[in-house]
Amino acid sequence: MKHLGKHLILELWGCDNKALDDQVGIENMLVDAVDACGATLICVKTHKFSPQGVTGVAVLAESHISIHSWPELGYAAMDIFTCGEHVNPEDAIPTIRSFLKPDNFEVINIQRGNIVD
């Protein structure tokens, strides 16, 4: 069976609290993650919440990478959704782990758009 895309859901616990609240750092992490997985960046948009937390998305020609952070809990929820044969979303994970420094993380891998040959 073929599929149109890969959707990785990342559960990141015990992250660096300062990184989770660093809007510019998160923007840079998203751009670096896009480069690492071989995707084509269209734009990055982030928003800093008060008193804390950042949400962001890198819009890709191949779909998106998104993050929602809870610095007070040391937690980040991320999605890496890509399509196309030339993109490997798993290659973005080391960049994300390097910036957020989670103690624990889980990757849920979902194949999207399954096609029966």
Please describe what this structure looks like.
With 117 residues, the chain is of the alpha+beta class. 23% of the residues lie in helices and 48% in strands. The chain has three helices and six strands. A hairpin with a 5-residue loop joins strand 2 and strand 3.
Give me a quick take on this structure.
The protein contains 3 helices and 6 strands. The chain has helices at 17-20, 23-37, 93-100; strands at residues 2-13, 41-48, 54-60, 63-70, 75-83, 104-115. Keywords: Autocatalytic cleavage, Decarboxylase, Lyase, Polyamine biosynthesis, Pyruvate, S-adenosyl-L-methionine, Schiff base, Spermidine biosynthesis, Zymogen.
Q: What is the CATH H-level superfamily?
A: S-adenosylmethionine decarboxylase
Number of helices: 3
Question: Class by helix and strand content?
Answer: alpha+beta
CATH topology: S-adenosylmethionine decarboxylase
Q: Number of folding domains?
A: 1
Strand content: over 45%
Spans of at least 5 consecutive residues with low confidence: none
Assign the CATH architecture.
4-Layer Sandwich
Rounded to an integer, what's the Rg over CA atoms?
14 Å
| Main beta sheet strand tally, sense and closure | 6 strands, antiparallel
Count of DSSP strands: 6
Give the fraction of residues assigned to helices: 10-25%
Q: How widely separated are the two ends? A: 6 Å
Spatial order of strands in the largest sheet: 2-3-4-5-1-6
CATH class: Alpha Beta
